[in-house]
Amino acid sequence: MSMENPPLEQVRAVLFDLDGTLLGVEMSKFIPAYLEGLSGHFADQVDRRAFARVLTATTFALLRSDDGSRSNQEMLLEAVGLHLGIGRAKWEQGLAAFFREGLEDLEKLITSLPLAREILERCFSRNLQVVVATNPVFPKPLVDARLQWGNLHDFPFALVTSYENCRYCKPHPGYFQDILQSVGLQPGQCVMVGNDTEHDLAARQAGIPTFLVDTWLVDRQQGSFTTDYRGGHEDLLEFVGRLGQDPPPISGFGP
Fold first, then answer.
1. pTM, 2 dp
2. E strand or H helix at 211
3. Are 131 and 181 in contact (CB under 8 A)?
4. For residue range 182-223, what is the model confidence (pLDDT) as tens digits?
5. Which residues form a coiled coil (predicted)?
6. What's the burial of 255, exposed, middle or buried (CB within 10 Å: 0-12/13-18/19+)?
7. I need a labelling partner for 66 at 20 to 30 A (CA). Which of 167, 178, 189, 252 fits?
């Protein structure tokens, strides 16, 4: 443990990235498949290539935005209305139809990680709050679907970030500051866990210690990054077992 970090027993919450951290997925395949499937539900209103182009550009704009005056959902709705002529009602209708009918092709791109469930169980056994801190560029039903495909959907998460409930994206420090406010904790009472050296380690800008999961490392920083802790999933399992307070002994048993 580095000298700057608070004692691990002071940690009260763990923020987990989702893709590449709690489940296996190649986003380079997942995002095009998502756009292809979703565009089919708007094909009678707009060219599919134009739809994918606008959604891709808007997603990158969300990742770079420091506006913070409205939710990511509102920013996306403005973009699809302005550039594609799709109003909010039509957007919600097409999105709902896609979630009813079009998720099968996405599910096969997700791989569940047996250790991920054990890691989360250990967090909850130590009375830690758990936040699913996935980059909030997708609607919540798509986040929920990925949690279900990863067999992680039945945990009592304190917060699951999505484009509806966030006004910043990773790596903006405002994303992490909003999470801190939501769970009512100070930076030193949390740890951010993720596999992306740019997006997840940005939590350090908000004062949150980080654990870099290097099983499927995404390193846009080309090695020029700093993290407080690092290791694979086995290391992460051992690490979360040192966070927070030891659970009280079970009374009423023994001599």
1. 0.93
2. strand 210-213
3. no
4. 999 999 999 999 999 999 999 999 999 999 999 999 998 898
5. none
6. exposed
7. 189
